[in-house]
Amino acid sequence: MIQIHMCDDDPDDCLLFKDAIEEANVLNNISFTQDGQDLIDFLKREGEYQNLKNTALPDIILLDLNMPRKDGREALKEIKGNQSLKHIPIIILTTSKEEEDILKSYNLGASSYITKPVTFEKLVELVHKFSDYWFKIVKLPET
Predict the structure, then answer these.
(1) CATH number of 3-136
(2) Is the pTM of this model over 0.70?
């Protein structure tokens, strides 16, 4: 089973995504962090995540851009600069439609850039497409 990790500072967005996964009958595990620093600690199994040292890293990361402490751009740069983490595909999932954010995200190593849908129905549709592409078509590295 593919492990999804979502990093987003908006608890409502996290809950909506979790509900959309259930509504779309996607049977993957999903975990959450609330900002870029929390994500880095989670991936490196540091701080409050030390107890996860012997568990697998996520297979795919959904990353918001605009967050406190360390934003998504900074986290993306740090992850893609880390030899043991850079293989994890990172999909930017954000409200930003700014061309500068899109270009910078790809330049930093993002695998995809998706603008968050505004309705729950569109989010469920997105989850279906996301699931088909990332879990049925794409071959992810085995960890």
Answers:
(1) 3.40.50.2300
(2) yes
